[in-house]
Amino acid sequence: MNHQHHEHEPDRSGGRRARSRWWAAGLAGMTGLALTAVGVAVLPATDVVARALTSVRPETPDRPSADGERGHRDDGKHHDKAKDKSTGDKDKGKGKKPKGVPVPCKADALIAAINHANARGGAVLDLAPKCTYLLTTNIDGAGLPAITTPITLNGGKHTTIKRAAAADQFRILTVEVGGDLTLHKLTITGGQISDDGSNGGGILVNAGGAATINHSKIIRNIASNGDGGGITNHGITTIVKSTVNRNTAGLSGGGIYTTGLLTIKKSHVEANNASSGGGGIASVGGTVQVGHSTISGNQSNQGAGMFIDDGVIGTILDTRITRNTASVDGGGIFLNFSQLAVRRSILAANTAVSGGGGGLHSEDGSVTVTDSIIKANTASAGTGGGVVNLGDTTLFNTKVTGNTANRGGGLFNDDDDVLTLFNTAVVDNLAIANGGGIFNDEGTVELNTATGTVVAKNSPNNCVDVPGCAG
């Protein structure tokens, strides 16, 4: 039997390669169900919750906006007042959560309520504040029944869903085909799976399913031998004003692993760990959009902040990617066979320990960086403290400063690859061996100095094999 447990959950947020191939991932829209409770009385026990749910009548208007409540912006000084128009986040109104059926502070009551909601086509469930729903039973790999209909779980102050430490290993939630899960003001923690290839330590969203995570915390979940310590998304997942912190994956995506459509707004992905790629986020195929967020303090083998591979179409807007550490390549971002646009963002103080691209490592991909700062990143044992380009990279109105590497303190461009700069400053970078500003290894570097590009004050020299650049 599952048991209830009252507690306050602490906030602990805190050869050469083949040339490029592309896959386009289409954007999908989604609508949900809003459900109205009629004539619900006090619900002291599980069977009463089930009876109360019979009075909930499904309707068909659009689900309330997940980002309707006004919240703080990302703390990057260079874009504090920026509007994220690309993601349509306008923060209109106060975003009142839909009222639903109260669920007593008992894990068995929550399980019964979800089962009944699935049977009746969906529901809005109001979980108890200052309550931990402590899960002890493995239900097909999760602590709660799989979500197969539109279900909203509303929490409150200190509302937590947690796997009991002594229980068998299982994730907290699975969303299956037709499922549309919304979490509001909830903490999901303690999920753990260890079977080889089992993904999503906290939440698994399968293809054909959707999830919206709003004002919530996904913390301290583990996928020991799989992907997605906090969340694995194969469907459509939107994360708004939430934190994904201190999760662990034995393979990729310590915080989040996605192959579908992932949208992150005004959220924090911090202090997650993966053995392979993407300590914070691993996107392998599909589409990823990150706006007004922070990706910080994550660790992995490659792409400690973000690992982007296999035809991803990616956008990063008004976001700080800082203090991430990769044991090999791409401290901030590692990109391969994908397309990425970075706008009004900061890549700072990231580290590639033994490889290249302290801030960004782009391999067989296309990257455009606009109105951004690439600062104080390090690849002391390798190349490209700020950026390694092994594909096609363009910088517009961007500053590359204070980065360090063995070769190419600011920028490193490999053979047969193209690095293009427009109105960009490459200043005060350091190379231990050569090419303090830019090291070009038989590729093509276009400075476009007429647009205002400046390469100056780098050590021990500004450029190696870059036409139009004073050494």
Written account of the structure:
The protein is mainly beta. The protein has a domain at 1-9 and 32-85 and 97-254. Helix content is 5%, strand content 40%. It contains 2 helices and 50 strands. The strands form 6 sheets. The protein has a 24-stranded parallel sheet that branches. The protein has a 14-stranded mixed sheet with strand order 1-6-8-11-15-19-23-27-31-35-38-41-45-49, covered by helices on one side. A 4-stranded parallel sheet has the order 12-16-20-24, with no helix packed on it. α2 links the parallel β4 and β5. α1 (46-53) runs parallel beside α2 (107-120). It is elongated and about 70 Å long. The N and C termini lie far apart (73 Å). The relative contact order is 0.08. Residues 1-94 have low confidence and may be disordered.
Question: What's this, in brief?
Answer:
This protein is mainly beta. The protein contains two helices and 50 strands. It has a domain at 1-9 and 32-85 and 97-254.
Structural category is mainly beta
Number of strands: 50
Oligomeric status of the shown chains? single chain
| Strand content range | 35-45%
Protein name: Putative outer membrane repeat protein
Subcellular location: Cell envelope; Cell outer membrane; Secreted
Main location: other
InterPro entries: Pectin_lyase_fold/virulence, POMP_repeat
